[in-house]
Protein: dTDP-4-dehydrorhamnose reductase
Amino acid sequence: MIVFGKTGQVATELRKLLPTATFLGREQADLSDPAACYAVIMAAKPDAVINAAAYTAVDKAEEDTVLAALINGAAPGQMAKACAELGIPFVHISTDYVFDGQGDAPFKADHPTAPLGAYGRTKLQGEEGVRAEAGTHAILRTSWVFSAHGNNFVKTMLRLSETHDNLTVVADQTGGPTSARDIAKACVEISKQLKTDPTKSGTYHFSGYPNVNWADFARLIFVQAGKTVTVEGIPTSAYPTPATRPCNSRLDCSMTETIFGVARPEWKDALSACLSELETK
Ligand SMILES: NC(=O)C1=CN([C@@H]2O[C@H](COP(=O)(O)OP(=O)(O)OC[C@H]3O[C@@H](n4cnc5c(N)ncnc54)[C@H](OP(=O)(O)O)[C@@H]3O)[C@@H](O)[C@H]2O)C=CC1
Ligand SMILES: Cc1cn([C@H]2C[C@H](O)[C@@H](COP(=O)(O)OP(=O)(O)O[C@H]3O[C@@H](C)C(=O)[C@@H](O)[C@H]3O)O2)c(=O)[nH]c1=O
Ligand SMILES: [Mg+2]
Structure:
């Protein structure tokens, strides 16, 4: 098994689950060189590949579009091409930001995509490149990833709580926070099942349960962490950012459960595990 990514949130959790897999950091495979990603798979001939590397700085991607398009847009298709030629499963992670966030119904995996920003557009290009190769694959769209490692909203909130008693957080963007550990477990299970049943190939959704808005998520983080911080819910318009985020990030994950038996994990359980891990760090 080859995993692209070594130090990211999901890659770090995959390292714990797959001690014998080969993890490629950017020194071994730079995703800004898509042909190199193809070559490294063809040379190693693994039994499966997971791509957990990406350009994830949502606001920075608005300016850094060329690099984001290589890493998120072009590299996944080259990985999928190598996997298709070798006849091995490819699991690729994508995002809720491929949708426009309209309405309040959970998005089904076949709902039309319409990304609002450069990160989402480049991630969609990556998905399209993977689907075009038509090999054994799963594109797993997830959302709002958190873990004790790397950058994420949970760690940002804890850091801000060191210097603030009150925070303003958007209350009109709703989605499912998802722990990197649960995503890693889902990727491993899905790659196993694809090996024995390639007809399960397709695009799937996986996010933590239940859906919540960012302000309420922040409040729960502070409750669980035992911090007395007041969170004022604000509209997105009061928190301007370079990239527009979708207001509705709800993902309909039912097919992932039906086809793979992988259910939406409770994020509150994962959050307490994440907070304990941060305490002992
Ligand atoms: N974070 C989130 O909230 C969400 C993430 N996703 C998707 O989930 C997947 C995993 O995300 P997550 O674990 O949070 O990502 P992180 O931002 O934590 O990690 C990204 C990883 O990609 C690597 N990487 C970045 N650029 C390159 C490059 N040029 N060459 C090689 N490696 C590179 C990074 O390496 P290095 O450490 O060297 O920088 C890092 O290991 C991604 O596909 C992402 O789009 C989906 C929804 C939400
Ligand atoms: C720090 C902060 C953020 N916010 C808002 C901004 C944003 O709308 C929301 C979450 O902030 P973040 O910076 O974590 O958002 P963001 O980096 O856009 O998170 C996204 O990352 C990419 C990679 C994905 O794929 C998505 O699923 C999603 O997780 O909270 C506040 O309202 N107040 C604050 O003090
Ligand atoms: Mg971010």
In short: The chain has one domain: 2-152+177-208+251-265.
